[in-house]
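Dock D-malate; give full complex structure.
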Amino acid sequence: MPPAKLSYTDEGPKTGPPVVLLHGFPLNSTMWDSQAKHLVSKGFRVIRPDLRGHGKTPAVAEPATMAHMVEDVLILLDKLKIDRFRLGGFSVGGYVALELVRMHARRVEALLLVDTRAEGDSEEAKTGRRDMIDQVRARGNIVLVEAMLPKLLSEQTRKQHPDLVEKVRKMIMDTPRDGGIHALEGMMARPDQRPNLGSINVPTLVVVGAEDKITPPDAAQILQKGIKGSQLRIVTGAAHMVPVEQPVPLNHFLDHWATGFADKKPGMPWKEAA
Ligand code: MLT
């Protein structure tokens, strides 16, 4: 099967250190708007693809495995002549990032894992995904809005920020229907990355919303314990979507992630964020 040609944005100075940000399911690259703006203001070049079957990138006729999505992203980065980069992944973007660093460790300078996990799907989770696929086939993406919005955003965010609720709802409804189905199939088949965490040898920041029920703080702790020298930030006032719900603290952490390790050896602990 051919790789997918990814729609993407490429912002900031072409000479700036490249940062690649991978979004979650069933979302798109606009979920990183605040982080991209912030990093560009600090002189970084920020590349944000829409993964296959999400946002403006059409679906490809097969399960969107993590390996396929890694291949799509690297084809894009090769086209842009970007060899090494800082890599951030949110949720399924984190699953893709973990597979990318496993397969192509040399290319990754630093890793950011936001609201994601290393474990593969449990049997219960797989059953839930199968059911979700059937429902999306029958009723469309509104099923994803109904099932996921209350978990993506905290109750507080949903009450206080109707604009953010609308932004997330729109991202879900804009996801091509087959793209969502293929991503669900791909996530079901994803590998357990726990055995590989010990090989990650780049500065790594793990961030999770305190109220995240999709990839809870326990899952973030597994990442932090498994990746030597990594740091964990648990962000209050957020459920699953820290980049959208709590951009101010996240952008602050990113300053340390993207710049704080420049003169440090990989694997060394970073300076604590104030
Ligand atoms: C995501 O936000 O990317 C997904 O909810 C992750 C998942 O379902 O495992």
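Observed: The longest strand covers residues 108-114.
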